[in-house]
Amino acid sequence: MQNGILPLWKEQGMTSHDCVFKLRKILRMKRIGHTGTLDPSVEGVLPICLGESTKVAEYLTNAGKTYEAEVTIGTSTTTEDADGEVVETDASIKHFTRQGILDALLSLTGTIDQTPPMYSAVKVNGKKLYEYARAGQTIERPTRQVNIYELTLLSKEDIFSGELISFNIRVSCSKGTYIRTLAVQIGEKLGFPAHMSKLVRTASGSFTAKDCLTLSEVQQLVESDSLRDKLYGLDYALQDMPKFEVPPFLVKSIQNGQVLDAIDALNDHERVVFTMEEQAVAVYINHPTKEGKMKPEKMFNRSEGGDTE
């Protein structure tokens, strides 16, 4: 069995689940999970967790993301991207200065509110929003806060004119940000309907496009029995957490996942990693109900082998 993190380049036309399904056939293993949904029309970085590394998938999912997107001003769609039906068109001739667009982007940088689009996988009352949408229903959706760390105008023009105006942006953001909703919000700042016409995820956490393999490349590496060399160990997902080598007197307690007295590092960090011979064996967090205690959030079986740095 392969274990480790595989940075995959998801190609257009496939869902994230499609990628997992194909990898299960290529690798002949079931224990595979992805780290964040990408729509079929979107390509980009999609870290995949194999075997024991599926336990750290949520840490990779929670990491920041970077995208390059094209925003089109003048039309809005049901899905807020190019796949949906047009619901509003403004055919007037529009004129924007570069500074005007930069001001709109600046106003949406930082912590902002977003309402998930109806065509999304967010669940309301146990049902995904897109299921309501496909049934012709529009329901109230919860507004949530997301963080836009950086919002950069990539297009070089000084003046943008026309009935439909498109420009490219780079977005670095927190988990849960909808770039298509951000495109609509940019349109609102500029005073016109808008949608996201193209999108590529260029980074997920510290993985970038240059780290990624396509499905066909994975197939070739499996056939040459050299995929292992391209995998990252599960420790890669824990690299930003403080680490502590387990002292001899706590080895059995940690291995058994016991509740223990909390260490001082948990005053400043949400999680700590305990290691043995520099390999992670457990992630501990503050106990939610027992003050001064800590409990395991993840336990790792490092005897399976296959993890590589």
From TrEMBL:
Active site: D39
Enzyme class: isomerase
Database matches in SUPFAM superfamilies: Pseudouridine synthase
Family (UniProt): Belongs to the pseudouridine synthase TruB family. Type 1 subfamily.
GO molecular function terms listed in the Swiss-Prot or TrEMBL record: RNA binding; tRNA pseudouridine(55) synthase activity
Pfam families (UniProt xref): TruB_C_2 (PF16198), TruB_N (PF01509)
Role according to the record: Responsible for synthesis of pseudouridine from uracil-55 in the psi GC loop of transfer RNAs.
Alphabetical UniProt keywords: Isomerase, tRNA processing
Catalytic activity as recorded in UniProt: uridine(55) in tRNA = pseudouridine(55) in tRNA
Organism: Paenisporosarcina quisquiliarum
Keyword Metal-binding: no
Enzyme nomenclature, EC number: 5.4.99.25
Domain Pseudouridine synthase II N-terminal per the UniProt entry, residue ranges: 24-179
Keyword tRNA processing attributed: yes
GO biological process entries: mRNA pseudouridine synthesis; tRNA pseudouridine synthesis
Residue stretches making up the tRNA pseudouridylate synthase B C-terminal domain: 180-238
This protein's name: tRNA pseudouridine synthase B
